Amino acid sequence: MLYCDAYLTPRSLADAFTAMAEYRGRYRLVAGATDTLPWARAGRAGDVAIPALIDVSAIPELRERRVDATRVRIGAATPMQRFLDDGDLARAMPVMARCAVWFADDQIRAAATVGGNLVNASPAADATPPLLAHDAQVELACAREGKITRRRMALGDFVRGPGKTALEADEILLAIECAALPGYGAEFEKVGHRRSLVIATVCLAAVVRLDAAHAIADLRLAVGGVGPVPCRLHESENFLRGGAATLARLEEAAHMTVGLVQSRTRHDYRRDVLHGFVVRGLASALRRAGGASPPVGELEASHA
Fold it and tell me: Would you tell me how many other CB atoms lie within 10 Å of the CB of residue 201?
C-alpha cells in the first residue's frame, strides 16, 4: 500500500518550487501518476509512505501545445491520448500517433503523460524512440536564488541509463520541443511478453519522406528495449537516405542494427526481432509516405 501525508496541486511553477523546497528530499512529483503504484511495489516489501505527492499536471507551462510548420512544443504533462485526438499534433508528429495506439489501454493513455514516460527512463519506454526520431529536446526548470531558470538539452543526452536522467533534484521537466514532420510516413513496431498492456521487449520508430522520384529523401529510425537507453539508428539512416527503397537495401540496413543489441537477456531473439522490425516498419512507413506499390508490397509480404 502507498501512503502520503499531503497531496499538493500547485497551479504555477512558483508554487510547485515552493512545495518542493518545503518537502525537500521527501516528495515525489506526479502528473498522470500511472506509474506511482508500480513504482511503490517494485522491489519493496510492505507499505511505502511518501510525505508529499506534488501533482504538477495543472501547471499551464506543462499543459501547453504549440504546433507550426516546422516545430512542435508540448508540455511535459501532455497525456499520450492527445497524439490521437489532436489532429494538428498527430499530423506534425505522425510516429507519436502510431506509438499512442500501442500505449497501454484507453484509460491509462488518457492519464499517462509524455513527460512521465521520459523521466522514468525505462530502456523500453514507448515515447522515447519516436521523440528521438523527431530530434527532440527537453526543457528543464528550477528555482534558484529567487528566480526560475531554464535549460535545454537533447533528449539523447537527457536519458542516461535505466532509471537515470540528467534531471537534478530541484528540477522539473517542463516541455519537449521537436521537429514537425507533416507529410512523413510513419510506423511504430512493438513486441513484448504478452498481448495487451505490454512492456516492450523491442520497439522501433520509423519516419520516412520520399522525393518526387520516390527515392528516400529523409529517414529517421530509433529503437528501444535492446540496450540501456533508446537510440537512433544513424548508420542505417545514412545508408538508406537518398536511395531507392528496394528489399535488398532495406535488408542490408536492417543487418547493420544487430550489433546494437546489448540487453542482458534474449540477445538472439532481440536481434531477429530488430532486423524484422526495421524492414517491416520501413515498409509500412514507405507505404504511408506514398511509396511505389511493388517494392513496398514485396517488403511487407516478406516480413508479415
Answer: 19
